Amino acid sequence: MMEKAKQMKHSKTEISRGNRDYGCRCPSKILRLFIAKVKNISADEVMFGMDELQFSPTELEQLEDFIARYESHEPVSKILNRREFWNSEFFVNADVLDPRPETEIIIERTLEIFAKDQAFDFLDIGTGSGCILLSIAKEFPKSRGIGIDISEKAAKVALKNKFDLCVENAEIKNVGWDNFGPQKKFDLIVSNPPYIKTSDIFGLDDNVKNFDPHLALDGGRDGLDAYTQLSELTPNWLKPDGKILLEIGFDQYDDVKNIFESKGFSLANVHLDFQKIRRVLEFTA
Ligand code: GLN
Questions:
Q1: Which atom of ligand 1 has the smallest separation from the CA of 97?
Q2: What is the pLDDT of residues 36-70, one digit of tens each?
Q3: How many CB atoms lie within 10 A of CB 44?
Q4: Residue nearest to atom 7 of ligand 1 (CA)
Q5: Whose CA is nearest to atom 10 of ligand 1?
Q6: Is residue 134 within 6 Å of ligand 1 at its C-beta?
Q7: pLDDT higher than 80, residue 1
Q8: 8: confidence class by pLDDT, cuts 50, 70, 90
Q9: Distance of CA 196 from the midpoint of ligand 1 (Å)
Q10: 3.40.50.300, 3.40.50.150, 3.30.70.20, 3.30.430.20: CATH of 84-284
């Protein structure tokens, strides 16, 4: 009994110390997520069981590490190694672009193009975490997806997500775009390629420029390198009635439209994001 009382006292002291030390360094909602990860419990359990929680020195050290990383502007998703995208939670780390909500437009549009039970082949170019590839594959169980990425580390993350999310109808290949020799043609090609001008990268927010891989951001001198390359490669990879859905930067509509039209594509649709910015372009061959 004495032992138990002592333990409780200890635990309350630790918690209040945690709150006092950490409360002003990060919002309580985020602190709860960090505590949940350290203790391997849910954020709700943290909320309702706060008084009961005890921290070992190692756990306090881990919590301190999370908070220090938060203070250095590392995104919470990267600290927790997870990010919600569409209907799933993806493992993310320093090797992949943090999935963004506007990229979900690609999934929304794919759901309008194909029926849920339709069988089709699709390709995700620069798959990163695999968020687009695996979300489409999950929505369309009869589809067959391939995701390619030149980064070996990114391809490993996508593969981990494929296994964690139990997706069987998607393959991941660690290959550069120009070395990808597909065995078949695709009904749909999707991509959220790197589209930031090299010279703009240093002006991005710390949480982007310091924590998203530059390979996933850098679109070359004018930010358009990836689109030029895609416009040259994809005609050989698309079926005659195939479609392309491409995410673009906020000011790239005219340039990307021109690049693809000059290669014989037609702009079929333009999809706006939440801020009414032209964010996803849809081309037909
Ligand atoms: N396809 C991934 C995403 O949309 C990665 C994109 C990238 O690395 N540019 O998040």
A1: 8
A2: 999 999 888 888 777 778 889 999 999 999 999 99
A3: 10
A4: 216
A5: 99
A6: no
A7: no
A8: very low
A9: 13
A10: 3.40.50.150
Cβ(161) – ligand 1 distance below 6 Å? no
Least reliable range by pLDDT among 6-15, 128-137, 172-181, 199-208: 6-15
What does pTM read for this prediction? 0.91
The residue whose CA has the least distance to atom 5 of ligand 1 is 128
Pocket test for ligand 1, best of 131, 152, 173 (most atoms within 8 A of CB): 131
What is the per-residue pLDDT for 155? Answer: 98
* Domain ranges across the chain: 2-71, 84-284
Taking the C-alpha atoms of residue 114 and residue 119, their distance in angstroms, rounded to an integer, is 9
pLDDT of residue 22: 66
Could you report the per-residue pLDDT of 208-264, keeping only the tens digit for each?
999 999 999 999 999 999 999 999 999 999 999 999 999 999 999 999 999 999 999
pLDDT of 168 > 60? The answer is: yes
Q: Is the CB of 131 under 6 A from ligand 1?
A: yes
pLDDT confidence of residue 208: 96
The count of C-alpha atoms lying within 13 angstroms of the C-alpha of 59, restricted to the half-sphere facing its C-beta, is 16
Q: Are 74 and 103 in contact (CB under 8 A)?
A: no
